[in-house]
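Ex. 9. Protein: Putative integral membrane protein.
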Amino acid sequence: MNRPITDEQPRTRVLLPDDERAPRPSHRRSGLLALAIIVLFAVGLTYANRYGGATGAVSPATGSAEDSADGSAAAGTPATPITGVIPTGGTRAGVPVGYAHDRAGAESAAANYVTTYGSEAMVKPASRRAIVDAIADPAVKSSLQRDLDQVFTAMLPGLGLDKGGNPPKGQSFVYRTIPIGTKTVKYSPREATVEVWNVGVIGLAGKESTKPVTEWWNTTTVVLRWVDHDWKLADVSQREGPTPVNGSQPVSSPEEMKRAVDQFGGLRYGR
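Predicted structure tokens for Putative integral membrane protein:
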């Protein structure tokens, strides 16, 4: 809880978690549909609790010697260095494609797909279908399209959006996901499992907003398959955290938040 400041205490204030608030449950569901479902859960729970691109190539990870025979990361392996390689296939539906056929390429694909999957474009039917068409494994693409249409249609009223994914007049909708880091859990030339630690913001920015912009932290596990000379999204699951302690920065006004949302464009390249 927020602790009062007295004359004997330093003026720096840290906002600690509320000891009286029940801990938030951790949910993990498998399948490509899981990410949208958990976003809906996280958004609703957040409101209930609170309100009633890289530009240059970097060195790939030295992962081949660190992996065990079955491709999984060896126990006790030190933290991976910064990894990722710039995709070379241009973009499809605004999503970078054409990743290197190695561990670093899989990490880049996972980070970028999570960034795209958690974006404003997913609430619009046409752009959502184009994104799924660009990044999904063809084996699951049709069922994913159908299921996501159902999920996002159900989500829109809770997000304060109309049936087309549009915010109320005078407000701006923000839905962005920013990768903090990636970790390869298992790798083979045909399939890779990558964890992406990320922070997201979602909500309506503007003076009359009843869905203020909030943040959440989670770790998204992405399963990728090498299909048609590229890494394609095959499965997704998600768990909450790791979540840092909130800092002592004051919350911005609705007007300031709207200006930021309108003036700062989102990033298509996460890693």
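Check your answer against this statement. The beta strands are 91-92, 95-96, 172-187, 191-205, 214-227, 230-240.
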